[in-house]
Fold this sequence. Notes:
The protein has 222 residues and is mostly helical. The protein contains ten helices and no strands.
Amino acid sequence: MDIEELMINEGIRGDCYRLLAACFYYPQKEVFMQEYLFRNLTDALKRICPEAGVFSGEMEEAISHYTEEDLAVDYAKLFVGPQELSAPPYGSVYLDGARQVMGDSTRDTINIYQDEGLSIDHEFKELPDHITVELEFMSYLIFKETEALGQSDLERAKGFIDKQEIFLNTFLRRWAPLFCERIRKGTENKFYKALADCLSAFIMKSNKGLLELPTPNASSGL
């Protein structure tokens, strides 16, 4: 695979993380549909992780059967409250025990974001280890990787690939499958069940065998 093709594929993989993060925003059915969120996600997943693409197709089909109010009620029960959450969307609940938020793992994610020169927007009301933040951080790391590839800086690109694997193995791969299981058990809503299946499949399979970067003297001519 040459550099140009690699950049395209990695850009699509970054889109998968970004679009999956959007699926966990407060549901705005008409906006989701008008922006072809699920169709774009399915198209991207078919190239990067076909196993997950099956479930994003199910999401697009399922959401058509629910009103925005239906989705909002189930979203609140799963992720927001005010009652006890069926599926808390915070990594520390699963990684630090005792169903606590802002635990040691949360502080670890903050340190990683800061190491990359990032900080949480003050207007953002969620915690740093919310599922959307961690998915979007992965998208950011992939963006930086492709930026390095575009500059023919293979060593820097490899550094961002290593950071992705560390973040996945330290955080997302350890807690996202547990989170997805709680979604499946906590709702009868077929949209959210399919979302759980999609995220779980993508997190566990999308980066397997991640990237053999070409050497500087490879056929790309770099």
